[in-house]
Amino acid sequence: MFDSLKLLLSTITVRDIIDIVINSYILFRIYVLFYGTALFRALIGIVILFVCQRISSNFGLVMTSYVIQGIITIALFVLVIAFRHEIRGILQTRNIGDIFWRLSKKRIDKSSYQDIIDAVFSLSRKRIGALIVIPGKYSVSPFVTGGTNINSLISEELLETIFMSKGPLHDGAVLVDKNRITRAGVVLPLSEEEELPSYYGTRHRAALGLSEVCDALVIVVSEERGEVSIAHEREIFPIQDKKDLKLLLDSHLGNIAKEKVDKQYLRFGIASILCFLVVTGVWFTFTRGQTTFSSIEVPVEIIKKAPDIDIVSTSPNNVKLTLSGPRVILRSINVNDIDLIVKIKDEKPGTYIYDITSKNLSLPPGIKIVKLDPSRVTIKLDRIITKIIPVQVNWVGKLNPDILITKCVVSPKAVKLRGPRSLLNSLSTVYTEPVTVDNITKSGELITRIHLNPSLHVIGMGYDITVKYEVKKRASD
Amino acid sequence: MKIKLILKYTIPFFICFFVNLCSSTIFAYVLSNATVCEEVIGGKPTYSAVVFPSSVKSIYCYTSFKNIDKEGFIYHVWYFRDKLVSKIKLKIKPPNWATMSKVYIKDIDIGPWRVEILNESGKLIYVIRFSVVE
């Protein structure tokens, strides 16, 4: 088990680590962006389904695996359609940093929302109904309609003016962004919650409705009872005093106490580690989990030490290997990644048969050998000697019938060759490359090369041979 | 007694040694001409060459010797692509002598040939190299 893990880890390259880190970060950003939303809970469900699918696949439950895979595919489509508003809200965030790197954001400074708190309790005392939307991380634009652009600094007086019962904008909600009231008279989506207390009116239902579809915090001031309520994260609850409201706003807008900040960062830390672990697991499942087979033909490499002994022949020169391992690695493997080395033990002339085993092979990590074909290699060794051998021209072609090539002198007349003893002893002539007689009509000179067995080498000179020939007319002989 | 025994076994050995020595030195000659040709007409080689078309059908190896001091023989050994084709023993007589051997050429015999001229004891005297082409 430990060896398998060690083997698996030894296959990881820098490229793989980069791959894992990038995907971990993507997952972590999804967590940061969607945490607390209904979409996030749905995504967790998808992850659980995926884990089940992998487990069933590993246990060979083919049908179950395919069914879950189908469900995941359909669920992803359904998610995109069902949560399109939430996704749009997240993607419509004004700051690019909120999507790519920021963990939390601050929309209003403390002095501005103190004005909101004061205005809310002032409206409460005066029994003036109000609906104030303070967006969270994400835009509320996809969920709201209507309204009039105001774009004015927040002030207690302005808020009271908007929500005065005779004012044209008092029925809707005001949208707050940073330290400004951006729009007033905005229509919010109504909640369909059936268990809402009867004393909650349309204003409360609208506040709850928005909190159900996004992370905005909505402050409601009841016109009948003067009660201040907060709708946030699918819940609506009353607020007793300014201190409670301030605490809630602090929390919502990121101006939270140090302990809470620490807790938040701890949550992000745990989430980032979990993301890394999940992605690493999925990465291994995809890249290393799927074992497959592949065949490849590799050349036999022979290592010998004795300088006076040479390899005359190797049979076969290539061995077909059947390998097993992760599909991704096997796909990218080529002949250069595998070494098949046979070390010669008895360095004496003769014919030797060597068994090829996994010890002769150097395979990429994670790859195993299944079969070798053939599993034996025959190597013929011979002592290296030198010998001087005469050169002869290898004339070819069709001779002109009117001429005779009467004389032929080659230079050099003989060459010194180095090679296996058995081969050189049986050799009494070295021939040149074929020299055609087709175009020869008169005496001349040409340069050709000697044709040698690859095991032989010329010593002390090149392979070029000069041929001088004399031609006579046949009739004159 | 011991000396007699030694002489009994060593004298025949020395006799054999000197006889062999004398016989090898006595048979002397000079190779005056060695060639391959298409025909031998009137005892002379005709169309001597180093390249022959396969249409010639037969090739002669002609050798002539002079200053031969006693009757003996030589060998014409024919090789095609380093493979022995035939070894022909030929008599030579004093004082001058010409002798020849012949091989028949077929279409499959296209390629490099050589004829080795060997003396009685098989020592190489001369090599003639030639080719048969289409």
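qc> The CA atoms of residues 78 and 84 of chain B lie 6 Å apart.
qc> done
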